[in-house]
């Protein structure tokens, strides 16, 4: 049993939680809680840690066994309760966390026709900074049938614990690609016939006046500054969401959700 925060494994987990650089270098990220453990792909789980009291429940032991982490050499690392509480990033820890391997989905895979011939639909995020926004976009994207999410290097780290929590498990299933510069992938999008739309205050038409049934990419920019002029200029069309009152724009995740579900509506057979 691990009984001290000075243990090298505990120090490593703390670093993984706090520093994006450590997560990048190790290729790992930390997830907490029973739901996130249960939904994690078994082949990507590197290590499991549980509090001593977690193992007192037969139901909890069954949860571990279901994922192949029962007693023996494959079992979890047990951590003293007070140490686990110090380690946890949540207010009321459930007594289980694990290290999961990161994955990246190539653009070519995102652009393949999906299940039942589903046409590619991409969310391209530039300089997004709020962890909750990024997590919500991933979760909403899964629900709306998005093919993939692409982030530039200036976005908040995908594997930030706050992002992970707000995805509610979608981080395991939503294809994601991180790129140095979004402009680097634009030539390939054009070659593949993907039409790009930038959510912008200077939009030429309202979002629901466009046809998103073909290969589509939506550009979403920074919460405070929006899209850079450079990326805005690369979009095939600027679109806007109508506003009443004195509101100028929506929260980035909300705007992304509106666009994703309009595309989903059209693709279900609704009018463009």
Automatic annotation (TrEMBL):
Under the heading Pfam families, the entry gives:
MRM3-like_sub_bind, SpoU_methylase
Q: Domain RNA 2-O ribose methyltransferase substrate binding spans what residues? A: 30-106
Which SUPFAM superfamilies is this protein grouped with?
A: alpha/beta knot, L30e-like
* Gene Ontology terms for molecular function: methyltransferase activity
- Read off the InterPro entries from this record: Alpha/beta_knot_MTases (IPR029028), MRM3-like_sub_bind (IPR053888), Ribosomal_eL30-like_sf (IPR029064), rRNA_Methyltransferase (IPR051259), SpoU_MeTrfase (IPR001537), SpoU_subst-bd (IPR013123), tRNA_m1G_MTases_N (IPR029026)
* Gene Ontology biological process terms in this record: methylation
Q: Which UniProt keywords apply?
A: Methyltransferase, Transferase
Which family does the record assign? Belongs to the class IV-like SAM-binding methyltransferase superfamily. RNA methyltransferase TrmH family.
Output this protein's name: RNA methyltransferase
What species does this protein belong to? Blautia hominis
Output the lineage of the source organism. Bacteria, Bacillati, Bacillota, Clostridia, Lachnospirales
